[in-house]
Structures are given as C-alpha cells and as structure tokens.
Amino acid sequence: MRLPGRWSGVDAFSFGKPAKGRAARSRKTPAAARVAPRFGKPVMVIGASLVAIALAFGLFQVVKGGGEAVVNSTTTDLQQADAAHDVNAQMTATNAQLAAKVAFTESNSYAQATPEALAKIEPSFRYVSSASTGPSVVSIATTPTEVGLAVMSESGTCFYVHLSDVGVDAYGSGTQCTGSAALSATGTSF
Q1: Calpha distance 162→144 (Å, rounded)
Q2: Domain residue limits, the chain
Q3: Per-residue pLDDT tens for 57-71?
C-alpha cells in the first residue's frame, strides 16, 4: 500500500523505509562543509594543549605552595631549636653566676673564683680559662673585683655574665666566647 502526498515514497508497512525501486539519495556534503573539519582538529589540539598547560601551571602552584610551607615549617623548627639551645646555655651561665657569688662570699674577692674553685661549688659544668666550646663549658676570667663568665650555645651565640664586687650583675651575648669578652657585658639581660 502506498500513501499519497509526501508519504508517497514510504511503504506504509515498513515505517519510513523507502519503497522498492526507488533510488537512495546521495549523501555528499558540499565543498564548504568539507573544509570546516580541517580547521576543527587543529583548534581542538590547541585548546587541549592550553587546558593541559593551565592544569600543569595550577599543579606547579600547588606544589610551590606546599614547598614554601615546608621551608617555613623547617625554619620555624630551627628557630625553636636554637631558642632551646640558647636557654640551655643561659641556664648554665646563671648557675655559674651563682657559683661565682658563693666563691666571692667565701673570700670577699672574685680573684678566688678560679675554674677549680667553681668546679668544687658547682660540679655539673666544666670551667676553663680558655674559650667555651659548648653549653656545659664555662669560660672564666677574673680580676680581684670582677669575674666574667661566658657559655657557648649550640646555636653559635655566646652568653655573658659580668659580676663586680659592687653588686652589679651585667649580661650580654656575642660571638667571642671567653670570660675576658664577658667582662665587657653591660646589659640588664641576655
């Protein structure tokens, strides 16, 4: 059965298939349409490349931020470790200061605050006339009226205590770590 009008080429029982004997239409695309796909592929490649570059840039920014966070954290850790080392050296200097005051009260002179005398009073540390080499080594320089104590921190800072027979205690820090250098300390704290 054939349908009239626009349905004339369609077989009623085949639901849209062309009737027998009719030629199939040519599906050739016009020349202008065939040129367009040639530009589409390079544009897609360039677009995909730009997306890949943007993603790589974003990844590098994330990695950079993470690296900076690690560096900042490490720097903070090192600063805290140096502060702990400094406190340790300052406590040694304070304990040596107390030992020197005990030596002074026994003889009413700092001339008797020798490495040997301080080692008997406070044996926890090593007392030397030369430079301090660590937080448990106290460098001593004495005069009849003054004593200088110097202790080297593991951070590289040397802490000074300067005592005088007039009862003035002075503090300081520096790089030269000898009792002689400590005699020039004039600060009110480390």
Answers
A1: 13
A2: 38-190
A3: 888 877 777 777 766
